[in-house]
């Protein structure tokens, strides 16, 4: 196995497991521990791993977790429902082309699950998504500029919105802070809502990833009506009457 292949394997294992051990990696990849330590040092210089005692962790796992429980919150990215939603979203990916991955824990997990056999351009305001896909083979990354919103962390504001002008992508995967049949999609931050509107407008299809807790909740800034959304992927805990009301307003709902 050549060094670039080994680096990708190490990074994949780190993102799947959250932490990797030098000794176990050396055994699994049939190289010396010294070789693994050099690999980890290289990946740390590239900004995708952080070395810790006895091994390393992916950088995105070392970001501080903001408080709150909204769907746009990036806390507890390994939760079972988010895992199921992210895996269901894989079916919405194009075979080739461009996608938008918005900010949120589920989109971060979707980024980690992106197939390695596809040629994709990923557009994102999310620093966590960017860290996940930056070194992935076959991925062409475009990170939006702008002010960084700490709770996400993601870029917002007029610079980020202008970056999306004239873009046309196949699918946008977005998370929001609230979804209701009447107001549609809402966000807790006006600048974040502005960027989400631009991302939605730039996509041929829009898929919203949302755990059941975000439904029926209204945040302070309007993003879009539900008829602007093609598909909503949620978990099986979503209230059936609320799901029917959402579907009547426009999008198809898939429960994972």
UniProtKB/TrEMBL annotation:
GO terms for molecular function: DNA-binding transcription factor activity; transferase activity. Signal peptide: none annotated. It holds the Pfam family HTH_DeoR. Residues 3-58 form the HTH deoR-type domain. The keyword Repeat does not apply. This is Lactose phosphotransferase system repressor. Keywords: Repressor, Transcription, Transcription regulation, Transferase. Residues 72-81 have a biased composition (Basic and acidic residues). PANTHER family: GLYCEROL-3-PHOSPHATE REGULON REPRESSOR (PTHR30363:SF4), HTH-TYPE TRANSCRIPTIONAL REGULATOR SRLR-RELATED (PTHR30363). Repressor of the lactose catabolism operon. Galactose-6-phosphate is the inducer. Residues 57-81 are annotated as: Disordered.
